[in-house]
Amino acid sequence: MRSLASSLRTLKQHAMSKSPTSNPPSSIVILVLGQTGAGKSYFINKLLAEAGSKHHVQVGEQQSSCTSDITPVTASGLTSKHPTSKGCPLVVVDTPGFDNTLVSDRDICDRVEVWLTESCRDGTVLGGIIYIYDISQDRPSAPARVNSNLQMLREVLRQPELMGKVVLVTSKWDRVMCGDLETKEKDLSSKHWAFVVKAGARIVRFEAKKEGASARSIVDSLLELLEQPADTMPLW
């Protein structure tokens, strides 16, 4: 937990220090985090396909993680309708899932920190943190297992305007045999994750029937934050 906090503070050191309109970002980073099997790589691939990219990341078919390394992918075209970031490289970062069968959570955090330190340069902006959560999970402990990571995010980001860069994305809505998913969603919002929602984070569905458009809409909502005036834009 402490190591992941350190990773995020590393990215914080690369914040923009001037108005985005006078000094556009050199690159925008969006971290994709979540438990193993939640659909992080799948989400990224749908986003890339929606943008017309030929790139893709490997997707696992089992609950064991297939993503063992930090995998950054530059997505072209996703910033085209955002004046401030138009033409700016958008780097979507796939990460190994927590509760990983291959590496420990601490090792994952260490790898994120190393990648951020080596890859981020002056002018790099944290576009957002997307945390993917499998809404179809029937394990009673599932939300609680995520809470430690979310608690850390709240402690590191602190300000509500920074927590606004965190999107909790619920996935696998097509699994209708897994119980009342809408009730689960309400419980997450009003009970388990209320503390991060109150702090500024958002809970959004990864829509099963229009996955590409849904993924892009989520990323667009983060890029729109960069269009805010300099005195209100959440900088890092």
TrEMBL record:
<dbReference type="Pfam" id="PF04548">
    <property type="entry name" value="AIG1"/>
</dbReference>
<feature type="domain" description="AIG1-type G">
    <location>
        <begin position="30"/>
        <end position="227"/>
    </location>
</feature>
<dbReference type="GO" id="GO:0016787">
    <property type="term" value="F:hydrolase activity"/>
</dbReference>
<keyword id="KW-0547">Nucleotide-binding</keyword>
<dbReference type="InterPro" id="IPR006703">
    <property type="entry name" value="G_AIG1"/>
</dbReference>
<keyword id="KW-0378">Hydrolase</keyword>
<protein>
    <submittedName>
        <fullName>P-loop containing nucleoside triphosphate hydrolase protein</fullName>
    </submittedName>
</protein>
<feature type="region of interest" description="Disordered">
    <location>
        <begin position="1"/>
        <end position="24"/>
    </location>
</feature>
<dbReference type="InterPro" id="IPR027417">
    <property type="entry name" value="P-loop_NTPase"/>
</dbReference>
<dbReference type="GO" id="GO:0005525">
    <property type="term" value="F:GTP binding"/>
</dbReference>
